[in-house]
Specification:
Enzyme class: hydrolase
Oligomer: single chain
Subcellular location: Cytoplasm
Structural class: alpha+beta
Strand content: 15-25%
GO molecular function: inositol-polyphosphate 5-phosphatase activity; phosphatidylinositol-3,4,5-trisphosphate 5-phosphatase activity; phosphatidylinositol-4,5-bisphosphate 5-phosphatase activity; SH3 domain binding
Shape: elongated
Protein name: Phosphatidylinositol 4,5-bisphosphate 5-phosphatase A
Radius of gyration: 28 Å
Family: Belongs to the inositol 1,4,5-trisphosphate 5-phosphatase type II family.
CATH topology of the domain at 50-317 and 329-360: Deoxyribonuclease I, Chain A
Number of helices: 13
Number of strands: 24
Length: about 675
């Protein structure tokens, strides 16, 4: 259906049209405090859930993030007006080698910013995908998470004939209330004369991106597709002076018929069925950075609507099943509430564009895969009992876990503590539709008072399959000597580095190898690791930047080493025997509590922040290895004395000079 006429949103982020309440799907209920043996009856779900989906596209031009994006995300209009799902597509995020290395160790600054801004509004990062400077983030309200399943991502490079990812497309697809929805963020070739190349690249992206499963293997097989990004379509024929005159005179309709994308929608078969709201906002490219003035450089590029948001609803005649009925029950209806640009953001030569959609889902998933029941308050350790019931057909895994989250958590791995969902009678409960039961240990419970949420994380689907409403945890503060790795509140410190590590690692069997707190560390530094000794730069040493055989012979000197301070005898090993550490040991943790130095065992304090992290899980550079300074220098002296050659470096080889080549092989 043709969308209702839109209007340009004011810079303050006001709505373009009246908003209705967010999704009407009920949230999971809570059990009474005593909790009978049988599962309590859950709250009924709405038969026709509806929700608002916000889509944002912004070419950030390698700029640093602004201090606030609240108005961009339309979050300042009250809780009842918030969207239910937010998809954010970025292009030209700084992807130089130094930035990519930092982003490989820590979450990129743009993602951190959006998580920080959205988490107080109860949005949780569902999925993210990055291809060089092209990033796509999908957020949803926490109580919708169980209804977001079958989450997959894909990316397609089209730059330099498909070998470079500066251009191309990234996508996140998922099932929302049983309907398959795909978000596709693209950065297509620039310049006026490259219209045909843009069409070919878009067709290539549609052809190359394929997903697992029979529900929707291709992008256009989804029930609803949102296509957005810096599509780089320009305004043909018209002179730049007339284009600027039309903008200044607010007669934008005279530019629409010369817009390349508007022309293509009626002539390119690949765009058949795609819809777009009216362009009632000025062209979003190209501006002088830091201003609202169009390009004043010598090139004087013509203004254009390069940043666009389109959508497509799958035709009812496509994909008919047995009896002529569609595989997905019901029909989607989509109406656009807002389509606007935000002129107040000046960090880039592009202006961000936002579209808000009201989507009516004909529900097929009427209850979550896992229903969790918990008391209204945990004030004593014996009350930390969790009952959960799995729906018929749910694919249970022995690696599933239940996380305890603070209200306002940022992503599924941002838990406070967790317990494995390994009930002894789990299979029997699944078959007979009974409640299974697990219990948090006293050491894993957070101290103090606050609001928390429980979430069941499914390892099979890499998503949260069930959540509770917020409930109170009021534990008396006391000695925290017995805190386990599953309790990030008992041993946390605001001074420790808290960057999000291994964010949403797919198929991660362990809930998270690092500690994930709520606030952002925009410039994480290796100085946080005590005793870290970095080698001087080549400029300071006065040596060649390129590696040479001579420089490799002193391998331990070239590798940064971390000195772990010695511990008083008789104080080690106690914490390694705690029950809470058993879960981490099952996951193949590569950190050893005892380090042998000069033939005798020496204990490493687990209070050291470094000792609580697995270096391989932290994602440190392959050349960064943990070893004792004395140990490294001793092996170096031995290797020099014995004349052993250092042929190659291997991050997985034993400490020392690594392996030597086989006889007859070429080093």
């Amino acid at each position: 259906s043709t969308p209702p006429p839109g209007s340009r949103c004011p810079p303050s982020g006001g709505r373009c049209s009246p908003r209705r309440s967010p999704a009407t799907t009920s949230r999971p209920g809570r059990a009474p405090r005593p909790g009978p043996p049988a599962c309590p009856k859950p709250s009924p779900a709405s038969s026709s859930p509806a929700g608002d989906i916000t889509v944002v596209t912004w070419n950030v031009g390698t700029a640093m993030p602004p201090s606030d994006v609240t108005s961009l995300l339309h979050l300042n209009t009250g809780e009842t007006n918030d969207a239910d799902v937010i998809a954010i597509g970025l292009q030209e995020v700084n992807s130089k080698i130094n930035k990519r290395l930092k982003d490989a160790l820590f979450t990129d600054q743009w993602s951190e910013l959006f998580m920080d801004v959205l988490s107080p509004f109860h949005f949780v990062l569902v999925s993210t995908v990055r291809m060089q400077g092209v990033i796509l983030l999908v957020f949803a309200k926490y109580y919708h998470l169980p209804f977001l399943q079958d989450i997959q991502t894909d990316c397609t490079r089209t730059g330099l004939g498909g070998y470079w990812g500066n251009k191309g497309g990234v996508s996140v697809r998922l099932s929302i209330f049983g309907h398959m929805v795909c978000f596709l963020n693209c950065h297509l070739p620039a310049h006026l004369e490259k219209a045909e190349q843009r069409k070919e690249d878009f067709a290539t992206i549609l052809h190359m991106q394929q997903f697992e499963g029979r529900a929707a293997s291709g992008i256009l097989d989804h029930d609803l597709v949102f296509w957005f990004g810096d599509l780089n379509f320009r305004i043909e024929s018209l002179d730049i002076r007339f284009v600027k005159y039309a903008i200044d005179s607010n007669i934008l309709s005279q530019l629409w018929e010369k817009d390349q994308l508007n022309i293509a929608k009626s002539t390119w078969p690949v765009l058949s069925g795609f819809q777009e709201g009216p362009l009632n906002f000025p062209p979003t490219f190209k501006f002088d950075v830091g201003t609202n003035k169009y390009d004043s450089s010598a090139k004087k590029r013509k203004p254009a609507w390069t940043d666009r948001i389109l959508w497509k609803i799958k035709s009812p005649s496509i994909g008919l099943g047995a009896g002529g009925r569609r595989p997905s029950q019901g029909v989607l209806s989509v109406s656009q509430l807002c389509y606007c640009s935000h002129m107040e953001y000046t960090v880039s030569d592009h202006k961000p564009v936002v579209a808000i959609f009201a989507v009516q889902f004909a529900s097929k998933a009427d209850k979550p895969p896992v229903e969790i029941y918990v008391a209204d308050e945990w004030s004593r350790p014996e009350q930390a009992v969790v009952r959960y019931k799995m729906a018929v057909g749910f694919h249970r895994s022995s690696w599933d876990w239940i996380g305890l989250y603070r209200v306002g958590f940022r992503h599924p791995k941002d838990y406070v503590s967790y317990v494995w969902a390994r009930s002894d009678d789990g299979e029997r409960c699944l078959e007979k539709q009974l409640c299974a039961q697990v219990m948090f240990s006293e050491e894993a419970l957070p101290k103090g008072k606050g609001e928390y949420i429980l979430g069941y994380y499914s390892n099979t689907s890499s998503s949260i399959a069930g959540v509770t409403e917020p409930f109170q945890v009021s534990m008396a503060k006391g000695s925290e000597e017995g805190s386990s790795p599953t309790d990030s509140s008992g041993s946390s410190s605001e001074d420790e580095d808290d960057s999000t590590l291994v964010l949403l690692a797919p198929k991660s069997r362990s809930p998270s190898p690092g500690k994930m707190k709520r606030h952002r560390s925009r410039s994480p530094s290796l100085a946080k690791f005590q005793g870290l000794i970095l080698r001087p730069s080549s400029r300071d040493r006065g040596t060649s930047r390129s590696p040479s055989p001579q420089s490799r012979r002193g391998l331990p000197r070239d590798i940064p080493t971390i000195h772990l301070p010695k511990e008083e005898p008789g104080h080690c090993g106690a914490k390694a025997k705690e029950p809470g550490r058993a879960a981490d040991s099952q996951e193949g943790s590569s950190f050893y509590q005892t380090v042998r130095e000069q033939g005798s065992p020496r204990c490493v304090s687990t209070d050291n922040p470094l000792a609580r992290a697995d270096p391989r899980n932290l994602g440190l550079l392959p050349a960064l290895r943990l070893e004792m300074i004395d140990q490294a220098m001793g092996r170096r002296r031995e290797s020099v004395d014995q004349g052993y050659p250092c042929w190659k470096m291997s991050p997985t080889s034993p400490l020392g000079c690594s392996t030597s080549p086989k006889e007859g092989s070429n080093p």
